[in-house]
Amino acid sequence: MDLRHSRPLIPGTSDDRTTAPDSQNRTPSEMKILLTLPNTGLGTSDFLRSGNIVHEPSLDTAPAEDVLAALDRYGATALVASQPPDEAALRRRTDARGPVFLACVPAAAPRSGGDLEAVAAALARCERHFALSRPLTGAAPPPGEGPREVVLIGAGVVNLVTALYLTEAGYRVTVLDRSPAPGGAAWEAYGCTHAGDDARMFTFTEMDSYNNQDFHGSPPDWFRRTVEENGWLARDAWTLSPEELAWIDEFERVPSWLARSYNDDIFALTAEAGREWARLRASRAGLFEDAVVADDILRVYEDPAHLESALARHRAIGAVLHELRPTGAARDCAALAGPLRDGSLAGGFFVPGFTLNVHKFTDRAVAWLRDRGARFHWNTAVSGVRRDASGTPTGLDCPVPLPPDAHVIASPGVYGSELLRGTPCEGRIHGVLGGWIRISNRATGLRNSLKVGRRGHVTEDANVTVGLDADGREILIVGSGYGYTGAGTKPDERQLAAMRHGIADTIERLFPDRAGLPASSRSSDNYAFKYCIRPWTATSLGLYHTEQGPGRGLYVVNGGHNTGGFAQAPAIARAVLATLRGEDHPMHRLYHPERFTAFTAPAASTRTPAARAPQPLASRT
Prior knowledge:
This protein is of the alpha/beta class.
């Protein structure tokens, strides 16, 4: 994979600095930013919506003592200004009250709406510095070699890839999963990896921020409108609990500048995962054998404006291979020549990435792990984590005996809330379902997997993955839809039907001449529609948490990767391996479960969840 796709994890300039060398040991539990830039565009943005940014433009040209007094008055730990205060005065303040992070936006910058980009970048540098400097509260591995046994709870693709890395590093692995062995039961019996269809995709934007990124826009209300109404709510609004309303409220409170910053961090970690996927494909080719790996993804769009904005976004991270225009469709993608010629599609572009049949890949991974001594316990639910009076884990409520003093890695998906109790991850993972339909690829002849953008459609984004069924017949697996199920996992049948109809409409739009798909010899292949429930967070960031575990081991939780669990799996594995070795990894802090709440002003973070009840659903027109 090309390193050009990577974004720096700590962007900044020479104007960024912390005023005390020991700032990492003195980072406060909450952060507030004093912003003195006289920017006229701020009033129409969402930058100042939360109470953790104080805007005092009169201070930008004020004496240093006035600026420093304001820092104390507001309890600010960061300053965004056009120039730094006097060094001597700043040092005196630092010695007395602690460090301040400085981010400067030069006064020569244009004072217009376009200046918001510079302000957003400066605010992001402050928040990211705070996040990366924040001491981790989890325990360190024991001195010496430490335990060499690891118990992984959950046999989804994230934990299976983690098990591969741990086994390669010499750890002895035990895997527990609440579901039957893959392929041995109906799809409803499984979690996200094995209940979803046999298709996963890696692109450099696969895991994304879904929060508002428009400086002048409003928070999306997707979680307050049903799927029928082109929203993402897969339940009746009146059934939402206070916890679920609070989760939706947090999603809507992430300001646009912070959502963009989170997106950069997500993309940087995905770039790391891309390099790791390339290494795995080169060094462990047997894992991908018969998994129908298809390289280079074609992104296509109905709307010309949507196409151009997506092109600009992917060019910004160096993730465009070449464009597809209607005039070149017969050469570059004959299967879509018709929709491109008749205007059903505006065009598209190829991006680096790959798809594979994920069930075939995980079957290979399980076999590879077993051959190297890994133990698997299917139909084995871990019903809880026992803790002592101080809250330290002392054991697992599990029906099988486990190695003493083992490290425990929990990747619980949506169904493992009992594994999160007592951790900062508790209540942060909710469910968002996506649906799948298969069709034959025999007549269509598609060779590249697709991403399809249909702005304003009930299933706006779709993945079309080329693959094979159990009998080796060429198929297309069409996955799409967002349906919030909340802290529970039961969607409304009416909203499922709306999602199913939306996917069917996308299929009809793109592949009107598709052939029928006869039944497969494997019963788990045969369905007209299925869905899986993905673990999401309100901030769009994944979660990573470490604490002292039972015995001498550690207890590590990771999850909530939205649509990017498969894409980021190798980076997650690297982060886990670093934890067990006592090493640092950016994910440990960038995906800290309290990253957003630690940065949010107390007035916002303690707001009563029920204060923002779902809006009445508009009637369909």
